[in-house]
Specification:
Elements (H helix, E strand, L loop, with lengths): L6 H16 L13 E8 L6 H16 L4 E2 L2 E9 L4 H14 L4 E4 L3 H14 L3 E3 L19 E3 L6 H14 L3 E7 L2 H16 L3 E2 L7 E3 L8 H8 L5 E4 L3 H11 L9 E4 L6 H6 L7 E4 L8 H13 L6 H18 L7 H8 L13 E2 L6 E13 L2 E13 L3
Parallel strand pairs: 1-3, 1-4, 4-5, 5-6, 7-8, 7-9, 7-10, 10-11, 11-12
Antiparallel strand pairs: 2-3, 12-14, 13-14, 14-15
Helix pairs in contact: 2-11, 3-4, 5-6, 11-12
Length: about 400
Amino acid sequence: MTTTVPVRLRRRAAAVATLTLLSPTACTSSSTDADTVRVGLLVSLSGTYTTVGEDMRRGFQLYLDTNGGQLGGRRIDLVVGDEGDGPATAVPAAQKLLDRDRVVALTGLVGGATVDKVQTLTTQRKIPLVGANARPAFPPVGGKPRDLTYTWHTSYNSDEPGIAIASYIRSQVGDGTVYAIGPDYQGGWDELRGFTDTFTKLGGKLANPDGRTLFTPFPATENFLPYLNKAAESKPKAVYTFYAGAAAVAFVKQYRQSDLRDVPLYAAGFLTEGSVLTAQGPAATGIRNVLNYSPTLGNQANQEFVAAWSATHPGQPTTFAMASYDAAAVLDRALSAVDGEVTGDKLNAAIGTVGRVVSPRGDWQFHPTEHRPVQRWYLREVTPDGPLLSNVLVQDLTTLPTT
């Protein structure tokens, strides 16, 4: 895909680069400037999902760079924390951002288990959390629904990809069965539940002998061949899965070496998203997957986003980068509506007035009570796009949530 960076984006990026060179300190120092707002970005910069976290960091920073380092007309003091592999490292990092750095908003968060824990902290402190990746189902606490007043997401509920593609897969396999396999942790449970619950409600049958998803150990699994060859014995018409990061690379390469090699593979789009697709190489060709974004979408917002991304980063932008970019856009709109001193309460109220967001994925808006995007989901297929493999748009699937 050949892209050209718009002149206005080049000028903004150059201006930000000049400001960065002139700044004597990093963005972690305190500021008494009333026009400066401190925002916390917590993503995985170490561990299994480092590539996801880096993409999220770059997406947020890209929006800042193309807007002169400001959101809502205010300078942003961005404080970055490392989420690591889950709550054990993420919770202390979040506490530092909230209590010592005193951020007025927190964004990022790669893992659903992290979101579940950190959401409690931000709610207690009345600080808006604008999550930009996995979002769990938020089970009730003490028999009461979770308070989501201060919890927002620009990404998706973790069960939505499977829900969105289930009907399509059902139409492809007919009376055949589908084998479900994924990683044994919160994200895997959510992703596979969305598919299996919806698929079976539509009359589909799982090939798994016990009628339940096979969950592989996380994060220890590196050898998937025994699981895949065992799955082949059930003679499925198709396989559905979710993996991300390094596990996705191993899974795809070994799938093509297994007894399932000729069985169609469907997945939540994270399986082939971003740098993992480059690492998978030709083994990923033909995989059909579902996601809320494709770099080949033809809308103007996406063309500008891809152009700006390509000017400073290798490869194509991912859904991780896009959702974090949109988190910055939401904060931009919200901060512009806040008068005077910015507090968590005032900023949170302003987020509720943002309305329709013009996004690279296509326009979306927050669900009024669940605070997650009402958005389109797309069927994609890994095919060559010029010299590179890409998740090329095949068709629209559905809009979720519907109510």
